[in-house]
Recover the amino acids of this structure.
């Protein structure tokens, strides 16, 4: 049995920094096997002890799986969709993984899949402001005024979209960085300014970049990517 100090476990698991973990412990927000722990020297067995912070379970992430997939056209971001090709058909790992967030059937690019339920919640929930970057092509040249409108935010689905970073690549192509993810948001936003998306590719989620990963292929996140991603959230 390998024991670990509780605050180190919280840091290693990516839940918070070691110093923040110490503060949580001192404030009585941490439970081990259902019992509140306030002693900083407390040691636990990450494999068997159940740890919670303010009611949220903290998992030992050393054995969890984190994948980056370049989703091709025509695949549905779902664990099950009768009659459709799903993104899980493209990965081959023994663990059960889930796609984080959505990328619509007609879009391509970066998708993260993981067995980490906590990370899935953090990245999927709209209240967490992680960045997502997209490469967008439209049917005809789009003016600077339309790109400015996209950047400033516009009314959509009963609310106003958040300000976004927008950079032109060519007359019919631009990059956009969002901190939210409404259903088919970019296609709807572009439609609001009188244009039509012809190609949409996601190139980055938080610190994870698509890079040169070929369509339909996947890879494990590096230790550095995983560490930076967990600490950022």
């Amino acid at each position: 049995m390998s024991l670990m100090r509780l605050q180190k476990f919280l840091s290693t698991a990516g839940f918070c920094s070691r110093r923040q973990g110490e503060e949580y412990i001192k404030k009585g927000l941490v439970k081990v096997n259902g019992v509140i722990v306030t002693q900083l020297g407390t040691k636990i067995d990450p494999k068997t002890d159940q740890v919670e912070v303010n009611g949220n379970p903290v998992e030992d992430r050393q054995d969890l799986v984190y994948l980056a997939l370049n989703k091709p056209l025509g695949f549905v971001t779902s664990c099950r969709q009768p009659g459709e090709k799903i993104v899980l058909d493209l990965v081959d790992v023994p663990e059960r993984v889930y796609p984080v967030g959505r990328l619509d059937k007609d879009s391509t690019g970066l998708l993260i899949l993981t067995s980490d339920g906590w990370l899935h919640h953090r990245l999927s929930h709209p209240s967490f402001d992680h960045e997502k970057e997209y490469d967008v092509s439209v049917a005809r040249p789009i003016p600077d005024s339309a790109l400015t409108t996209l950047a400033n935010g516009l009314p959509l689905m009963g609310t106003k979209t958040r300000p976004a970073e927008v950079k032109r690549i060519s007359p019919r192509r631009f990059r956009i960085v969002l901190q939210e993810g409404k259903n088919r948001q970019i296609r709807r936003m572009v439609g609001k300014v009188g244009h039509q998306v012809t190609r949409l590719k996601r190139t980055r989620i938080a610190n994870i970049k698509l890079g040169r990963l070929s369509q339909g292929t996947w890879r494990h996140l590096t230790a550095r990517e995983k560490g930076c991603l967990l600490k950022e959230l």
Summary: The first helix runs from residue 6 to 12.
